[in-house]
Design brief:
- This protein has one domain.
- About 70% of the residues lie in helices and about 0% in strands.
- It contains five helices and no strands.
- α2 crosses α3 (about 35-45), α2 packs across α5 (about 65-85) and α4 (about 50-60) runs antiparallel to α5 (about 65-85).
- The protein starts with a helix and ends in an 11-residue tail after the last helix.
- About 15% of the residues are buried.
């Protein structure tokens, strides 16, 4: 999944807006829901998406699109990870110079 998102970013030229990223994620999630649910669950686990939210998305009412809900969860989680990484970023450790 990461390679396809990276390819989307490279082909887009500039940084795509959130809706473009979300649509790309939803498209991939739809494919995985149809053809390889085990791989999708593995991705969601590795991305550390909350399991209870995954279960809710997969058992959502008839009108809701599970792929869209899961895509939104993935994007939200990735944004959280970026914020956390930025918050605890350590530019350099002076005493580690060799």
């Amino acid at each position: 999944m990461d390679n396809e998102i990276e390819l989307l970013l490279a082909n887009h030229g500039e940084e795509p807006d959130e809706s473009i990223l979300l649509n790309a994620i939803i498209e991939k999630v739809e494919d995985l829901l149809k053809y390889d649910q085990d791989l999708l669950m593995s991705y969601l686990y590795r991305l550390d998406v909350d399991e209870s939210k995954i279960i809710n998305a997969l058992s959502s009412p008839e009108g809701m699109m599970p792929a869209r809900v899961l895509g939104e969860l993935i994007l939200k989680r990735q944004k959280e990870r970026l914020r956390t990484r930025e918050k605890y970023k350590n530019d350099s450790i002076d005493y580690w110079d060799f």
